[in-house]
Amino acid sequence: MSTVFKALSDPTRRRVLALLRQGPASAGELADHFEFSKPTMSAHFTVLKTADLVETEKQGKQVIYRLKMSVLEDALLGFAKTFGLSLKPEQEATDRSEEEETPS
The pTM is what? Predict the structure, then answer.
């Protein structure tokens, strides 16, 4: 989990993740949103990939990045539980009602 939080600690990487929430994008498309050199952006992409927050697919000469939302959600839920925080109240109510409906 520490690699996930290391990845999330940088505002550039958080912005890359926000861009990927809109859908898959090539490294070049993502880099166009920043004024950093390609090697700097590549290093950011590597950190995100190492943290398993993104997955890549090679399409010809392009590398396409996709957000792995489940990994991000798991990390954030784990972090919240560490501090005794729980799901949103409406989610807890939904979870409880589903548990009550399932027979033991």
Answer: 0.72
